Amino acid sequence: MRIGVDDTDSPAGMCTTYLGAALIRRLHSAGISVGEARLIRLNPNVVYKTRGNAAVCIEAEGDPDRAFAEACRCVEDLADFAGAETNPGVVVCETPPPPDFYYAALRDFCEIDDAREMLEAIGARYRGYKNGRGLIGAAAAVSSELPDRTCELLAYRRPERWETAREVDPVSIFRAEEATWPHTWDSVDRENDVVVCVPHTPDPVLFGIRGESPEWVGKARGCISSEEPLCEQVYVTNQGTDAHLIPGAIGNLLEGRSYILAGRVAAVPATGVGGHVSVALEDAGQTLRCMAYEPTKQFRDVIRRLIPGDAVVAVGSYKGGSLNLEKICIRTLAERVDLRPPICTACGKRMTSAGSQKGYKCRRCGARAAEPETVDRQRTIRPGWYEVPPTARRHLAKPLVRGVPDLPRV
Ligand code: ATP
Fold it and tell me: Which residues form the TiaS-like TCKD domain (predicted)?
């Protein structure tokens, strides 16, 4: 059977993955054997999310009525019901449903009634608390399929420490990354010299190590010195797989979905208030604003170096009329030719513009010229893929170290 749980936390505390880890231990004690534990990320643009729009699915064998009772009791004991937007959902299904509902919740938006209808259709046991919105994530989690998968080892804090500062030795985390990268990733951001895998939010997570297998995340974990965790759980996950992306076309994008699309740079990139960089792309007469926000740090320099005519593939979420970039591929670079007034052939002095569309004029001898001088400038960027740094990475975004997306046909 599969057990799905979602929406148990609030900005003030708790975490659905922690509740999942607690439930796994309770199921063991109840004589129910547990197989794979899945941490399933859903559409990152959903407004109801507390942090990373995660849900949990536990594969188990045993009495489904008992499992359902244990899951409901665990939610009733641990979920942060005081949170105004905490609406837990619990699902138990005896066989995995088709993955359609998972893909809808991953790439699109769903209604609570869609989840109920799907759960009724497959004869699942389910319970929605408060407004029942958590049924969406719980139903999506039990419907999940993972054609590509990664792992995350999560270490959880002892409840008596939840309100205190986390004690994790940053040097040991850099050591862990050094010892296991590229088989683990995003524990630290080396370029920005920051630890990424220790949260600052008031939840039970002490740290989380992402990597390609339980062995690799376990090896990295072995390097880390910290306060004594309460427990640790390895989840299999769709994190770092780009599972949220839909092939798209400029002019045909829907709000709140995430796309991979092709275009050409249409105008010189601009840096706005707050250091956010925007660049317009065009394709087939339609244009699209792409954004590299300030938290994407050095990635903005890549965007600033684009010029009109560069052919690119952009990846990101379409929100408020802009594509918020997660990564970009420069396919071909336009030639960069700068124009400047020519040297006067009569007296050797550089001419000046004689006015719009009027050519150039020598201020010393009065000679005229029609054409400017052209200067080929070396481009300071190479074709290839570029991504935001680990500090700005979305959970679902596939780091380039795991491989690059297939390019759309143009
Ligand atoms: P955490 O990851 O820390 O557990 P969270 O960021 O996952 O928190 P939730 O508290 O689970 O956030 O809130 C997300 C809510 O949005 C849930 O009720 C979930 O069922 C719902 N939801 C998830 N995906 C979709 C979707 N595609 N359309 C509509 N609602 C969704």
Answer: 3-127
